Structures are given as C-alpha cells and as structure tokens.
Amino acid sequence: MSTRSDVDRSPLFGVPRRLVSLIWLPIVLALLFLTPGQGVAPAWLWAGLVPAVGGWLLFALRRELSPPATVLTSVFLAGGGIVLLAGSDGWTTSAAFPMMAVFVAAMRLPYRAALLVDVPLIAVTTIVVGPYGSVWDVLLVVAALTAMVLFGFGRRDARRRAEEHEKALVADARAREEHARAEAIADRARVARDVHDVLAHSLSALAVQLQGARLMALRDGAAPDTVAQIERAQRLASDGITEARRAVRALREGPGPVDVAGELRELGRAHPGATVDVDEGLRLGAREGETVLRTAQEALSNARKHAPGAPVTVSLRQDGDGAELEVVDVAGAPPPPGDGAGSGLTGMAERAALVGAELETGPTPDGWRVRLLLPAHGRIAP
C-alpha cells in the first residue's frame, strides 16, 4: 500500500522527488551551455536564465507553496524559458523551463486554476518556438507541453490518494483503539460484577455469622479473649467488605479521589503498635494515592504476619518534587531467609510499575523496610 512518503519518493532512484528535480537543473544547464546548436543570444541568455533558474530552485526546495506562490513560480519558469527560446532558434533545451512551469501549476494548483495558468503558457510557448515547417510540428510542441500538464495532474492525484489513505489508516487505528477501550471497560465491568456477587456477598454473610457468634458467646458467658477474637474477626470482615466495594467502584468508574492521610491513619489504628506520619499539604493523584494505600496495607499485613507485636513506622513525606512512602518494622532482628518472597511483594512491585514509581524492599539490621518512591508527576500541587 502506498503512503505519502512513497509518493514523494522517486520509484526509479528511491530518493525524494524534490532532490531529483534539483538534480535535473544542472543537467538542463549543462545541455544549454555545452550542446551545439542551442544558439541563445547573449542579450537574451541572462534575462531568461535568472528567473527560470530561480523558479526551478523555488519549486525544488519548497515542498509546499501557496497558490499565489505557485503561480509566480510557474510564471518565472515559463517566462525565463520563453525568453531563452525567443533568443534561440526553434525548440531547444530551453523548452525544459516552460515544460516544468506547466507541470508545477498542474501538480500544485486546483484543476481550474491550473488550466487558467497552463493554457496561456502553452499558447505563448508554442508561438515563440515558431515558425514551424508544418502543422505536425505545432502539434508536437503542444503535445509535449500537454503531456507535462497531464503528468502534473497525475502526480497531484497520487498525492491526494496517498493522503486520503493515510487518513483512513489513522481513522481505522482510532476505531480499533476505541473498540479495545470499550472491550476493556466491558471486562472491568464483568470483573466488578464477579467481585461484588462473590466476594462482597460472601464477606457480608461472614460478617452476619460473626455477629451471631459474638452474641452467642456473650449469651453463653464465653471468655473475654474469645469475644475479643470474634469482634476482631468481625472488624476484619467489615474492612474486607469496604475494600471489596472500593475495588468494585474502582473497576467500574476508575480510580477516584483518595484521602491518603486519613486512610493511612485508619490503617495504622487497625494495626497495633503502628505509628503513622504524613506530611501536611501533600496531595497525590488518584492512581498514585491508591498505590500508596495498597503498598502500606500489604506492608502492614506482612509485618503483622512475620513480626507480630513489633512496632511499625509508616511515613509519607515529600521527596524533592515527588513523594516517598516508607514502612519499617522493628522486630529486633532481620527476618529469616525466605521471608518476603511471596506474591504480596510481587503485587506491590506491579502496582509501583503502573504509576512509574520505584519500589525497594529488603531486610534491615533489626527488621524489614518497604520504600516506595513516587515520581514528580504523581503529585498534585497543593
């Protein structure tokens, strides 16, 4: 399939057509000066050569010309060539300039404007080349100039078709992108329904069962520790319902505004021994805020699992033009080999990559550290 770049290149040489046009100029000049029988009178030579060469260079070096500039280019080319033909004897190499003139007008002007320019140029050139020995000589000159006009029309139509083809390709690519986006939205909606129908309903049923279990434990005089455990499980189920609803909303509507500071403090309150420190005035975008919360949540969950009861520090602060989240637990010793290799860290790394952030995790002399570095574009100016 052809494109505009293909049309703008010579099929013979494989180089831009403008360069080919520029190469032809010294060839024409060499034939004009070196070939016997040209016979251009000195008085006519430079008067015609200057505008003709100037018009040729303007056409060859400028890819796009306005209609008035195109008309002037054709007039310079044809005028200079006609002057050279007037100072020579008959049809000589100087005819290359009027031929180029009608070609330029046909290629770069609308049909009607091109004909208004080319017909007078063809007539004047035909008259200047005479006198003729027969009518066939007249027809030969007219046919040569007309062929250049038709060649110009063909080149312009080829460029127009290439541009229309490129526009069709762009429209087709845009349609495919819209179709893919619609399919992605439909998939997210389907996943949201599945999460809501399965996970949220299951957690709601679990919360109801735990509430009944707590009431039965209170009725039967169960130990306070047992009741506390049931209440803690009930809170976890309620938190799971909240997180499931948030996930469903994010899948259906995309990430929404997040109160990062408030959510982090809420996570800290749910984790015994956690301290939360957030820089005042620091604001994050929806996706970045969600990444911070999920990273902190996973880090706290890992700390609760691998270092129960250990103090944990959660800090979110400005870092240059970006932001930094750091979660450090102090268990008194580094974790045993193999800790930290689960899917939770993989999920955190994938979330960080989606927003262009850097995630660093690893042991410290007395515990474990998770560090998330958000880029500058992840922040919203206060």
From TrEMBL:
InterPro entries membership: HATPase_C_sf, Sensor_HK_TwoCompSys, Sig_transdc_His_kin_sub3_dim/P
Protein's UniProt keywords contain Lipid biosynthesis: no
Protein origin, superkingdom: Bacteria
Gene3D superfamilies for the chain: 1.20.5.1930, Histidine kinase-like ATPase, C-terminal domain (3.30.565.10)
Keyword presence, Hydrolase: no
Keywords in alphabetical order: ATP-binding, Kinase, Membrane, Nucleotide-binding, Phosphoprotein, Transferase, Transmembrane, Transmembrane helix, Two-component regulatory system
EC number: 2.7.13.3
GO molecular function: kinase activity
Catalytic reactions of this protein: ATP + protein L-histidine = ADP + protein N-phospho-L-histidine
Protein name stated in the entry: histidine kinase
Residues that span the membrane, as ranges: 19-37, 68-85, 114-132, 138-154
A Pfam family it matches: HisKA_3
Organism annotation: Pseudonocardia spirodelae
Signal transduction histidine kinase subgroup 3 dimerisation and phosphoacceptor domain boundaries: 188-254
